[in-house]
Design brief:
The structure is a single chain. The chain has about 300 residues and is mainly α. The chain folds into two domains: about 45 residues; about 200 residues, MetI-like (MetI-like fold). The chain is about 70% helix and about 0% strand. It contains 14 helices and no strands. α3 packs across α7, α7 packs antiparallel against α10 and α8 packs antiparallel against α9. The longest helix is centred in the first third of the chain and has 55 residues. It is globular and about 70 Å long. The termini are far apart.
Length: about 300
């Protein structure tokens, strides 16, 4: 009898081990399929970027060759040299940098101020003010393009940096994002700073903003990338070649009967470098900021 029980127990253990091993293999198979699929999708998504680099560092005569070459042969920087000779590319980059950095810094500071008031202060009309901010975000940007253009003309700001910078010194999205983020910060720390005699500006810059670094990083990256890549508004209000931003400037690199793809690709490579630098510089805060504060408020 004891031997029979032992055999039955061993049989059940063997079946359990076999079932567990089978489930493990099936799970491993699905994971392998998922990894292969995600890897293939990632490579497919990155291929346009790879082709951009190949075309930028290839001689102009082989960029449109048939069949296309997947590797630059030979590797050359002639497109970048030609770009610097045929256009004020450094001036365009400087213009875009001036506009994007100014608007980003302004939105980070002013948006945080307004968001802090809506998140931590209690006053009559606070809820109404927040809903006005949300309603402002619902208005499509294309709707206000014509009124804004007419206003810039009346102010004599056309073809100037003021027309690019002043209308967007603070936008509704910045206020909304920082309000939603600052709601999640503990109010007790702010109250403790008040008891220590700190005024509102000191609390904002020395207490609130250091704790809100992830949210500030998200706002800064979104704002910088958005205005660095801005095209429609600069195209409308700027006319002087030396005041163009990089995106509008690259669109002017067209000749009467042909398109020089070498110049365009070289310019695109230069245009994307600052975006990569900003993202990787603040990546640590960005990954935290896109989740913290999303469920409160």
């Amino acid at each position: 009898m004891a031997a029979a029980k032992t055999n039955w127990s061993n049989t059940r253990s063997g079946r359990g081990f076999g079932n567990g091993l089978g489930r493990w293999w099936r799970g491993l198979g699905w994971r392998a399929v998922a990894y292969v699929g995600l890897t293939a999708w990632a490579l497919l998504s990155l291929f346009p970027l790879y082709w951009l680099l190949v075309a930028a560092f290839s001689p102009p005569s082989i960029i449109m060759a048939t069949p296309p070459r997947l590797f630059p042969d030979p590797i050359t920087v002639v497109n970048f040299v030609r770009l610097s000779l045929l256009s004020p590319i450094l001036r365009w980059l400087g213009n875009s940098l001036l506009v994007a950095v100014t608007i980003t810094c302004s939105n980070v500071i002013l948006g945080t101020m307004a968001g802090y008031v809506l998140a931590k202060k209690r006053f009559p009309g606070a809820g109404l003010a927040f809903w006005i901010v949300i309603l402002t975000m619902m208005v499509p940007g294309q709707v206000i393009v014509v009124p804004m253009y007419l206003l810039m003309g009346k102010l004599d700001w056309l073809d100037s940096y003021k027309a690019l910078i002043v209308p967007d010194l603070v936008v509704a999205f910045s206020i909304f994002l920082m309000k939603q983020y600052l709601v999640s910060l503990p109010t007790e720390i702010i109250e403790a700073a008040k008891l220590d005699g700190a005024n509102e500006l000191r609390i904002l810059f020395q207490v609130v903003m250091p704790m809100a670094k992830p949210g500030l990083a998200v706002l800064g990256i979104y704002t910088f990338v958005g205005y660095w890549n801005g095209f429609l508004w600069p195209l409308l209000v700027l006319s002087s070649a030396e005041k163009l931003t990089i995106q509008v400037g690259l669109s002017t690199l067209r000749f009467r009967h042909t398109i020089d793809y070498g110049l365009w690709n070289a310019g695109a490579v230069l245009a994307m470098v600052p975006v990569f630098l900003v993202f990787f510089a603040f990546q640590r805060y960005f990954l935290r900021g896109i989740t913290i504060g999303a469920l409160k408020g």
